[in-house]
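Incident log, structure service

09:12 report received: a user says their structure output differs between two submissions of the same chain.
09:20 pulled the input from the user's history:
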Amino acid sequence: MKSFTKELWFNTGREREFINITGTVEELLRASGIQEGLCLVNAMHITASVFVNDDERGLHHDFDVWLEKLAPHEPVSSYAHNTGEVNADAHLKRQIMGREAVVAVTGGRLHFGPWEQLFYGEFDGCRRKRVLVKIIGE
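09:34 re-ran on a clean worker, output below:
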């Protein structure tokens, strides 16, 4: 079995952002030479997420609105965690959206269903963060 590991780095310009990373992960899969296996993509920070969904602007807006309703940033005094950084809501948003995605690799391609894409979700941006891509198989 072969293994391929790469880290992707992000430094978003906004506090919350959704970035389609499908093309980048597909390039890494090609570079790995792996034809059959699994591709793990996971956020290495506790205020960021990796998830699979549709790349549609309205849906991304809906995610943002929904997450803000579930874990509003304000008032920051409502969170016990906000004693230094004021990012407690970002931790909760990450918990909702998930830490990682595992995608099957079939015939050297990511084996997605219709409309599925990989995304990096940032909930406490404007600083450097990383995502691990680990591909295993033959």
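09:41 both user submissions now match this output. Likely a transient worker issue. Closing.
09:42 reviewer note: The first strand starts at residue 2 and ends at 10. The chain has one domain: 2-137.
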